[in-house]
Fold each of these.
Amino acid sequence: MHYSSFTRTMLSIAVPVTLQNLLFSSFTLIDTLMIGALGDTPLAAVGMAGKWTWFFTIVLFGFGSGASVFIAQYFGAGDTRGIHRTYGLLTGGSLFVSAAFMAAALLMPERIIRLFSTDPQAIALGVIYLRVIALGYPFQALARAGGTLLQSTQRVVIPFAGAIASVAVNIVFNALLIFGLCGFPALGVCGAAIASVLAAAVNALVIYGAGWSRRTMLRAPLASLLDIDAPFVREYVRVSAPALLNETVWSMGNLMYSAVFGHMGTGAYAAITVVKSIEDLTSVAFMGLCSSCAVMIGSFIGQGEIARAKDCARRHLALTIGFSVLIGGGVLLLRTPLLSLFGVSSAVRQDAAAVLIIYALEMTLRNIPLILVVGIFRAGGDTRFGLIVDSLSLYLIGLPATGAAGLLLHWSVPATYLVMYLSEDVLKCVVYGLHMRSGRWIRPVTQGGSHE
């Protein structure tokens, strides 16, 4: 593949997706900044409640990641029927999951928050936030399903427009409802949750409104969406279920990591919440690379061009390493002015500064497994290998080591955070690198793709 052709295609997908993720990450950052002005406890409470929403979005991502394997390869092969029936399964599954998560948040919010803290005040505020924000889950499910279809068929501008509208709504109503500006009631954390629900609804409306008006694949007839037979479902489940299970297992493990920091104290969780908002902001470029990588590799494999798929994978891996070094250096240089934006106590800011240094230095090791699993292996049709390695490294190594450091040995927040990262990422970089070199990740799901 000629370098200029690769660059044009990569940028046409990666830039809008990166900007979209940047907007959604700024969504989290804005929430953190505004709620942080209310104090450490409200900030920690929203961070704890937000973990349930984060868990939900990761499960949605798992649904979308599995479906995108099919959609991208079908798009490369020109199989419209395959795209429509995959989208039908994706939408139905996403809405079902949103209903389950919303019911749990509405019926047992206190039990969920208690997973992360024993602080009565933080629990009370977290319950208020969770009960409201859960009402936006169906809108998030619809937006994720529609956005996955559009991105996998290289119509990435529409989800980006949805993100712009969503973030604008969130900023305006956060200011109005958290602090009671312009005659609105000052609702604190409840106001932040209401703003998030409104933003999710606007995002879905823009995606489907623009998608239908521009005659994208979203205008599929209902009969096409329901054109699903048993053989297709079996093949879909065979490929997609490991991706969904991978994201679910990984996100559950990260909830347990959060529980470790939550039980280390409200201040510890506030520090991690601050760092997480910055992490989200700096990770957007890598999610953009994952998206362009997945769409391009899937399309090449759907066309039967395996050599181009392998070349695309190597180039995206090199870009990921380069950007990790560059962005990590930026975080190191700017950590002090970044942290000065947050209205938290000096103790929280001190812990967050040390954790940011660790995050910046370890960024390359964290992002190599990300691009390999999410951007390369799944696009090639191999959804099982990441599930196996992630699960073993997380539950046999990472969680036991982190729990021992934070809860048994009572190490500091930065030291526990370092254990959490290094205990998994070094091993995964080695194992995933060897798997990429083997080429066994290329497993076409269409009739057109074949191994060389």
Amino acid sequence: MEDRFALLIDADNVSAKYIKPILDELSKYGNVTYKRIYGDWTKTNNASWKEELLQNSITPIQQFSYTHGKNATDSAMIIDAMDMLYTSELEGFCLVSSDSDFTKLASRLRESGKMVIGMGEDKTPSPFRKACDIFTVLELLLEDNTMEKDEQQAASHSHGKETKKVTAATREQIEEAVVKIITENQNDDRETGLGEVGSRLVKLYPDFDVRRYGYSLLSKFLETFPKLKLIQEGTKVSVTLYEDRSKKEMLEEYIIQQIQSNGRFGISLGSLGNRIRLKFGDFKVRDYGFSQFKQYIQSFPDVELVDDGERTRAVYTGGK
């Protein structure tokens, strides 16, 4: 049986253009039992939603703004969510909003063992993102649904709130996080599956989404990192460190490639050393049993050192 979710949308802080991507994305997690949207439907800025409600069977909840500056929509949405928590057999909630007013609600629902999926525009503050199990940026969903780029730039309703853009985790942070996950598992003699990497990254960065980095598959994204290697055995995909292939082997392969690519004149030891340090930042010749770089290169069976009086060059002789 599929997990049941309640979809609760804050119409005051989310544009109607996102409704199809929201429903498509939520269908990955389970069956949407409740679909409710909260707002003051007497306001003209909510008119764009009205066409979508009937087509997508979403129940509008009317909330008049009795007091200026107070958001009645937030209160109604929170009360309904708590009612559903205690009276309905739901496995999770999807809260769609671009402000931080629902941070406490998300935390409370998770404390009760419910899964909380947050969705909001890229301006959504960090506290709400982190309060959710998973947070998805709506602009990414819109892109993924191949809608027009200029439509993505349509104005959103900020209601005077600060719209500071939240920066996603960098590629370097993602790579280091995955390296740490693999290392921890290796210390416990455990393999690291692709699924575990995905779920652990979402726990670390609730708004993590490979689409943000230009990929549709996590596996393709991870393959771009030099420190990571994916191994497929049947349907099982595991992630490991490239060092497992032996860093020594990688280094030797790189050195031979660099010497070969410079043809019969070879490459100076100075240039070769600089290239190695650029590629392998932590390279130390002592780690490979030599006190001098020259001795190390001399140890390669298909490499000859040539001293022309000005400099020493490494020349590949394997083809002779």
